[in-house]
Amino acid sequence: MRVQLAWEGKMHFVGRGETSGHAVxxxxxxxxxxxxxxxxxxxxxxxxxxxxxxxDIVSILKKMRLSFDAFSLxxxxxxxxxxxxxxxxxxxxxxxxxxxLPPEKVRRAIRxxxxxxxxxxxxxxxxxxxxxxxxxxxxxxxxxxxxx
Length: 148
Known about the structure:
Blueprint: E1 3-9, E2 12-17, E3 23-26, H1 41-63, E4 70-79, E5 87-97, H2 103-117, H3 119-124, E6 129-134, E7 137-139
Parallel strand pairs: 5-6
Antiparallel strand pairs: 1-2, 2-3, 4-5, 6-7
Pfam family, one: OsmC
Organism: Hydrogenibacillus schlegelii (Bacillus schlegelii)
Protein name: OsmC family protein
C-alpha cells in the first residue's frame, strides 16, 4: 500500500491513496500554524480505524444473514499529555438499529472485527486500551465470545 502527500503551503497537505486514487486534505490546527483546511492526522487515524471495523461489521452481519436499518459509529480517544501524544485509550460506540438484531451476534461481529479482521485495529492494538459500546451498553473485549 502506498500514499503520497503533496505540500500545499503552511501546514496543509493533500494526500492521495495509490490504490483508491482518492484525495484527503490534511492540515494542522490554527494555533500551531495550520489554516484548518483539512482533517488532523490523528483524526484520520481514527477515521481509518472506524472505517475498517465498520466495513467488517457490515460484512460479518451480512454473512450471519442479519440485516439492519441504521448503523453509525462514534469514536472517542484520549491522548498522552507528553509527546509523541499517542492514543492511550479509544472508545468505540457502535449504534445499530434493526428489527431482528440479537445483541450477542453484534458483539460477536465486533469481536471478530477487532480481534481477527481489522488491520487498523491490529496495527494500533499493542499500544492502547479499547472499550466498546453497542447502543449504549458497554461490554468488554475480554468477555467470553458468544458463538454466532
